[in-house]
Amino acid sequence: MSIVDLRQTNSRQIASLLEEEAQRWREELHWDYRASLDLIKKFVDAKSLAGSVALENGQVAGYAFYVLEEHKALLGGLYVSSRWPQLRLAQELLDDVLQTLRALPRMERIEAQLIPFGFDLSQTLAEQGFWLYPRQFMLLDLRPAPGTAPGDQATPARMAPAAISGLRLERWDDRYFAPCARLIQLAYANHTDGDINDQYRSESGALKFLKNIILLPGCGLFQPQASFVLRPPHTHELAGVILTSLVAPRVAHTTQICVMPGYQRHGLGRRLMESAIDVLRARGVEELSLTVTAANDRAVRLYRTIGFATIKTFTAGVWLPGRAD
Description:
single chain; 2 domains
């Protein structure tokens, strides 16, 4: 087995591996991941995607890639075929990528937001000096119970939220990009998710994050009809937001939900979630997924009362120089 630069391969060589990866996303997470993998193929053929590939007798057994942004790196993907020793090869790929990244001048931060299939990367990330953040992938079945008409199906454990006088519930509009970025920065200040994803820590970073999930296909096809903001009257500033994308036929994903400090603990998160769910059900969507950091107890409890169940756990990691111990 040899580890080589990803830019030495082409999309034809990695096609069967990506097909296997797409199948795992579909079977385990109910996502149609092919649009994201098509982008990976294009970048591979353009020799513009940095990473590593594990080769055995000319066959691609696994790959990992990363994205650089100034003095930060994001490990964006790592997959090893079930036909080979997955954990061992994943460790070798991760080690090869990290050696490259740590050798770069002024590398200040490495984020690993990977969902592995067939193995657990937690111990490996810890041994590489990453701070670990367990996360949960949750799924809600939106289909009517047997014998129930679709229009009669109520959101599980639906409760009337505490009233916040004057807040307006409005569908997403692109004029909310800037105020939503400000909302995200304030909502995740001193929050665990801000430790995991440093884009949440600034308006400019949050704006990049929003454009990625709304304008690009990596997180599915954005659904403005099932995305809402809560806004006080006479201002464009936001009290809360929920953003939704379609990630497979009849499967949606909540890409972002947050509430402004000062408006929290008043049922607004539930109100936003139930508004999106009502629209998704009316449009024939059968499942809704989301990811949540396990340490975010209030959010986990909310999702469970609505009816979400955890179908996969994984670990996000952050490496900072000088804090590896």
